[in-house]
From TrEMBL:
Recorded name of the encoding gene: LOC117137252
Classification via InterPro entries: PDZ, PDZ_scaffold, PDZ_sf
Listed name of the protein: Inactivation-no-after-potential D protein
Originating organism: Drosophila mauritiana (Fruit fly)
Domain PDZ: 17-106, 250-333, 365-449, 490-553, 585-665
CDD domains xrefs: PDZ1_INAD-like, PDZ3_INAD-like, PDZ4_INAD-like, PDZ5_INAD-like, PDZ8_MUPP1-PDZ7_PATJ-PDZ2_INAD-like
Biased composition (Gly residues): 140-156
Biased composition (Basic and acidic residues): 459-476
Domain of life: Eukaryota
Pfam families attached to this UniProt entry: PDZ
Length: 675
């Protein structure tokens, strides 16, 4: 949606309102810069100016904006004295709609634009930037499309910015009229300057001579149904740009930062000619699975023209390519064509990544990729840290550098540069690696705690241990004391003449002769109501009397827990962690119609033997006793099963029966009574 309200300003000026709505579009489509325009030898106007308009954008389609226009206000806010960044922030905050107050400096040119079949100085059928405008963009920095995925443009600074704005204003009308006069044959011949760089509609910077910037005439556009990629490539544009080359191919591959490309390059056999040939492809590299062979000539990569360039320069281009995607344009020559200066390379050295162990040794290490543009923006020192010892550390960062933007922090330990480990490197070795690295540099870093933080943590840990020790030494109230593992705890149970409700093992005529251990807790007893005692708890004494099972019969031990106590009973409990147990199997042949003679009480561990009838099976008589826990029956686990299921398993079994039995085996913790 575009609204227009115009009013006459001073001589030769038109001030009007334009509303842009980018609903359904990626951006508003304007590129801005702060500069100044010389109105006369004695006067000048400064402010925010439009330095570029994206084709087919809301700014382009409205027909009321052009390069050189001055923005007076944005959404009612005066921006005549605002900085470029402040205006960018206002546009970001505006969401999908902005209202601009525009000052146009040449009214006659505005009227001419209305009568011309093109608007904003762009042909409606074109999908490329006005080359005169983009030339100034290339010298002044990146353009700005205010939408998703668009970068923020950086305006020209100081005198260069002023000269550029003056040049744009004084030549704008003349250049437009010249283009109008050549309108009839503009689609047929590409007379643009092909030096320098330009940005595609997707925001990627490419060479002007790239196939992505190739201009198609009207008929070619109608035939080309392919959608341009982010670098502007279509096969129609590629074939037109390199129409003298054979078997042109476009190859795409996703790059893996941890995996080399595996590409060997070579130059032309004729030293007077420049070319970039594929000398070999490592089958284990990133390009091992794509359609590229030795002898292919690489003419472009990601909009960077390699045709007629030295293969050594091409290597630097590959290293400096941004992003994870690699798009190459190649020409496949016939086998008998002699061009490459070397024979195809068939064997590549085995790749060994020596940095893999770093992440095993330092799980918190991270990988950071930084583009080196003359410098990385970091300083390093050789030092020592309490947490990791000696090594190379980041000592300083250049403000606004690529390293700072990538997340490198002062104090980080440098563990590796690309695939070279720096763990045992000295200062000279580490700085040498950083100086030699080119393009995108991959560093493995470890963020460490400061010395103050480490000291504070140690002090806090020591304090916590002391407090825990004091808390342990502090006597607990037996009625509420918590039972802690591997420690004798005195507890008090309220029984009120009610049964305690437990099954225990232990006695001099018992298989358990070193202590009295609980093996079952009945849900209706007082022990269950108290909720502190558990199966396998070792009871060392009761009401202050030690339970020395080596001098007590099994019956006597059982009677201690079946006696009715008046109000309360005190117990000294030891909970072993891990539990002190032994496991064994009992196998027998069960006869049809003859019961096993076991009375069982299921619990969360299995089935505890509450009683057994002697004389049924010798194997049971000699090996099992009251208090043993059957955890498996014929291979089936009994853990947590209800009584009905357990009864059915035991009742229905015939023939060979196998039982896994768990029995307490406590450490002796009570002394024998003195005679």
């Amino acid at each position: 949606m575009v609204q227009f309200l115009g009013k006459q300003g001073t001589a030769g000026e038109l001030i009007h309102m334009v509303t842009l709505d980018k609903t359904g579009k990626k951006s508003f489509g304007i590129c801005i810069v702060r500069g100044e325009v010389k109105d006369s030898p004695n006067t000048k106007t400064t402010g925010i100016f439009i330095k570029g308009i994206v084709p087919d954008s809301p700014a382009h389609l409205c027909g009321r904006l052009k390069v050189g226009d001055r923005i007076l206000s944005l959404n009612g806010k005066d921006v005549r004295n605002a900085t470029e960044q402040a205006v960018i922030d206002l546009i970001k905050e505006a969401d999908f709609k902005i209202e601009l107050e525009i000052q146009t400096f040449d009214k006659s040119d505005e009227q001419q634009a209305k009568s011309d079949p093109r608007s904003n100085g762009y042909m409606q059928a074109k999908n490329k930037f006005n080359q005169e405008q983009t030339t100034s963009n290339a010298s002044g920095g990146q353009g700005m499309g205010m939408g998703q995925g668009q970068g923020q443009g950086q305006g020209m600074a100081g005198m260069n910015r002023q000269q550029s704005m003056q040049k744009r204003n004084t030549t704008f009308t003349a250049s437009m009229r010249q283009k109008h006069s050549n309108y009839a044959d503009e689609d047929d011949e590409d007379t643009r300057d092909m030096t320098g760089r330009i940005r595609t509609e997707a925001g990627y910077e490419i060479d002007r001579a790239s196939a992505g910037n190739c201009k198609l005439n009207k008929q070619e556009k109608d035939r080309d149904k392919e959608q341009e990629d982010e670098f502007g490539y279509t096969m129609a544009k590629i074939n037109k740009r390199y129409n003298m080359m054979k078997d042109l191919r476009r190859i795409e591959v996703q790059r893996d930062a941890s995996k080399p490309l595996g590409l060997a390059l070579a130059g032309h056999k004729d030293r007077q000619k420049m070319a970039c040939f594929v000398a070999g492809v490592d089958p284990n590299g990133a390009l091992g699975s794509v359609d590229i062979k030795p002898g292919d000539e690489i003419v472009e990569v990601n909009g960077n023209v390699l045709k007629n360039r030295c293969h050594l320069n091409a290597s630097a281009v590959f290293k400096n390519v941004d992003g994870d995607k690699l798009v190459m344009i190649t020409s496949r020559r016939k086998p008998n064509d002699e061009g490459m200066c070397v024979k195809p390379i068939k064997k590549f050295p085995t790749a060994s990544d020596e940095t893999k162990f770093i992440f095993d040794q330092f799980p918190k290490a991270r990988t950071v990729q930084v583009r080196k543009e003359g410098f990385l923006g970091i300083m390093v020192i050789y030092g020592k840290h309490a947490e990791v010892g000696s090594g190379i550390f980041i000592s300083d960062l250049r403000e606004g550098s690529n390293a700072e933007l990538a997340g490198v922090k002062v104090g980080d330990m440098l563990l590796a540069v690309n695939q070279d480990v720096t763990l045992e490197s000295n200062y000279d070795d580490a700085t040498g690696l950083l100086k030699r690295a080119e393009g995108v540099v991959t560093m493995i870093l470890l963020t460490l705690k400061s010395e103050e933080a480490i000291k504070a943590e140690k002090a806090a840990e020591e304090k916590k241990k002391e407090e825990a020790k004091k808390e342990e030494e502090k006597p607990q109230e037996p009625a509420t004391a918590e039972i802690k593992p591997n420690k004798k705890i005195l507890i008090e149970l309220k029984v009120e003449k009610k049964p305690m409700g437990v099954i225990v093992c232990g006695g001099k005529n018992n298989h358990v002769t070193t202590g009295c251990v609980i093996t079952h807790v009945y849900p209706e007893g007082q022990v269950a109501a108290d909720k502190r005692l558990k199966i396998f708890d070792h009871i060392c004494d009761i009401n202050g009397t030690p339970i020395h099972v080596g001098s007590m019969t099994t019956l006597k031990v059982h009677q201690l827990f079946h006696t009715t106590y008046e109000k309360a009973v005190t117990l000294t409990v030891f909970r072993a962690d891990p539990p002190e147990l032994e496991k064994f199997n009992v196998d027998l042949m069960k006869k049809a119609g003859k019961e096993l003679g076991l009375s069982l009480s299921p619990n969360e561990i299995g089935c505890t033997i509450a009683d057994l009838i002697q004389g049924q099976y010798p194997e049971i008589d000699s090996k099992l006793q009251r208090g043993d826990i059957i955890t498996k029956f014929n291979g089936d686990a009994l853990e947590g099963l209800p009584f009905q299921v357990c009864y059915a398993l035991f009742k229905g079994a015939n023939g060979k029966v196998s039982m896994e039995v768990t029995r307490p085996k406590p450490t002796l913790r009570t002394e024998a009574p003195k005679a």
